[in-house]
Structure formats: structure tokens, C-alpha cells
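Session log. Operator J.P. requested a structure for one protein chain; no other inputs attached. Running the standard single-chain path with C-alpha cell output.
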Amino acid sequence: MTAAEKNELKEAVLNEIRAESSDITKLASAVSLGGLAGIPAVQGDKLVLVPMPMLYAGLAGLEKDETAVNPFTDVTGVLSYDAELVMTVGDTNLWCLALKFSDSEDQLIKAVYNGEAISMKRFYVEKEEPYIWFMALPKTAGKGSCELDW
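Structure written below.
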């Protein structure tokens, strides 16, 4: 077989595969998770099927720790905020803070937990809308244990 014939055969096979392929945007949408065997995923360079029990097990740890208390405290005196627990994964709580800044000059605010700065955010005087700040803290972080400081 010549190189030209090989290329012609390869192109014919590829065209046949393309003709039989489905566009993912044209698939019917499931209306519930009942009866599903799995979902496709890419693992390395292979297309694989993720069985639903495995998917459920992976998602089982994504819950909210209902006993969590707000671990944040403002020591700057220029912040007003709401803190909401987004999710708990293993021994870690992910928090979302919506903050308003009321100072006369721009500032760098840091979150300090156990004496260590774990995150920093620059606040600007002219910004009107609230800042959104996500932070991960251990589930064991107690009330007021993470200080928002200069």
C-alpha cells in the first residue's frame, strides 16, 4: 500500500467516525439521577465511564458542618461583613465572606489564624460594591479564631 493510499484510507475512516459521532450539545438531558449507570469522563488520555455509586461517594463529603460557628472577627474597625459556610470537605470548612470597607484610604487586610497570615486582600476606598472573599479553615476553627487585621 502506498503512502497516498494509506492517507486516503485514514481519511475515509476518520470521516466515518465523524459521521457516527454525537454532538454532546444535542444529547437529551436527564431529568433525574435515577436509573443512570454513569457519566463519561476523561482520565489521562482515555474516555472512561464513571459509575454513579463512585460519583455519589465522591460527593458525599461535600456537605455543610451544621455545628460550625463563625470563626471571623474584625479587629480593624473598618469592616462590616457577613460570613457564610459554603461547604465542608473532610476536616475543612470553606467560608464565603461578603465585606464592606469603610476607611478613608486603601488598605491591605489579612486574615490571621493561629498567629499566621493565611490570606490577604487589598481594599480600595472608591469600590462601592461588597468584596467577596473565600477562605478555607479547619472545622475546628472556633468563634473569633480568625482575625481580619491590617
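Operator note: The longest strand covers residues 79-89.
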